[in-house]
Every structure is written in structure tokens, then in C-alpha cells.
Amino acid sequence: MSESSVWQSLAEVAFTQRWVDVDGVRTRVVEAGPADGVPVVLLHGTGGHWETFATALGPLSGRYRCVAFDMVGNGFSDKPDQPYEVPVYVDHVLGVMRELEVDRAHFIGMSLGAWVAARIAVSHPERMRRLVLMSPAGLVATQSNMARIRAERTKAVQNPEWDSIKAMFEHLIARKERRLPDLIALRQMIYRRDDTRATIDHLLALQDPEIRPRNLLDVGEWESIKAPTLVVASGADHGEYQTTARKVASLIPGAEVLEMPEVRHWPHFEDPATFNPAALAFLGRDDAE
User: Fold this and answer.
1) How many domains are there within the chain?
2) Residue-level pLDDT at 31
3) Residue 234 domain-assigned?
4) Bridge partners of 15?
5) 44-58, 197-211, 218-232: least confidently modelled range
6) Residue 287 pLDDT > 80, yes or no?
7) What distance in Å separates the CA atoms of residue 160 and residue 272, rounded to the nearest whole number?
8) Where in the sequence is the domain holding 270, given as residue range(s)?
9) Is 223 inside a domain boundary?
């Protein structure tokens, strides 16, 4: 891939961005694809925004109604004064679906988004068609990883200079050329916002060793997921995420694994040529059933 901007992925994609009121939370939402298509809900990671899925929006929207948004407390959506625990995210996702009249959807989640999607699969299985989990969290609480994330993100918000934000992406994307300036600039805009600075502790609540454990899915809950599931194994990601991906794939009945050995935390963005066809093939099985 030779793109130097997310717009090279989006230039020929018909999509609509707007803000939707979800239980009082002004939420930044993007939709692409046929209005009557099977919905696919795309959930980003901690501190993320919908552009995380810029490289997937075009290919997926050729067949599906894609819904991507900045989750509560993240991106350019509202950031209410409360810790953002998994139930808060779940309520927000379900609220977006309600406002957009989406009853049931495929879910593609990355990191925090995978954690939230897995919780929805457990607690609201009637809303779930197929599930794609990338760099999944939600099984373990590793002190070192929580401390790393908290330190990186806090430093970036306290000092939102270009080099500070750019350094954060070294842990997200293995290949230097895929750490696009657009991504750094977007994250810099978000981290320079007054509401981001005011709520960074809320955003990092799940990195608190007293809070995280009560939000995790236990082994039995992972085993209870009935939605057909594809787990992406990112071979260059941090050890905790690699371990979690393998473990949840072994726990979820019938789960499949997509091996992507060269990528880090954003497999779909770093190697869309591998991820997009695999995701389309996996989701497409539902169409034939």
C-alpha cells in the first residue's frame, strides 16, 4: 500500500457524516453502502474515531450498510462526566443502533471495540449476526499493559505535539509508512480539545486495576458466544493482545482465526489487502445461510 492519506482510501467512497443525538450524547456517525443492506457496525479502540476504518469502508460498503462512529467519550463525540466502562459503551452502541433503526448487525471491533462487541454478543445475542474481533481486549488485566496505555495516552493529551502523537502510533502500526500523517493530525486535533483533556481519566478508566476486572468477560461468557466469530491474530502486536486473541478463539465455539503475522494493533488498516477480502468472505457466508 502506498497511500499517504486516508483520503486516498475514501476519495471514491460515497458516505455521509453527521451527528446523532443518542440519549443526550452528540455522536459523530458515518454511514456508507446501500440503505437496505445488511448492517455492519464498526467499533474503534480506546481514544479512537471512525477514520480508523477508512481503509475498510469502501470495500465493505459495496455490499453492506456500514455504520461507524466515535464511541461515547472518544473522538469528536460528546464526553459526559463519568467513567467510560464497558456497560457505558454498550448502552451507547445500542443507542446508535436504535437511532439508526438497526435491529441486528454484523460487528467488527478492534481492541476496546472488540471487547464491547463481545459483551454485546453475550448480553444481547439477538442483535448480533457475525462477529470479527481484532486485537481483542476483555479477557485479562495485565498491570504492565494497563500502565503502558495510561502513560502513553496521558502524555499525549498533556503534550499533544506532533512527535508525541506520532510516537503513540508506533505501538499501533508496525510499518512506518502506514502511520499516515492524517491519522496523527486527527488524533492531535482530538487530544487538543478541552473536553478530551477534561475527561482523559474517564477515557482511561478501563486501565485502572480496580475498575478493569469488573468489566472483563469471564471464560464462561466467552464460551457462551453463539455468533460465528473470526479472530484476527496480529503477529507483531503486544503480547497481551496476541495471547488474548488465541485464547478467545479457543473459547468461542467454532471461532476461526485469520493469521496476519506482520501487523500490529490495527491489522485492518495496516494490511487492508489481506483483511478486507477475508472479512467480506467471512461475513458473506451469512448471506448464503
Assistant:
1) 1
2) 98
3) yes
4) 32
5) 197-211
6) no
7) 28
8) 7-141+210-288
9) yes
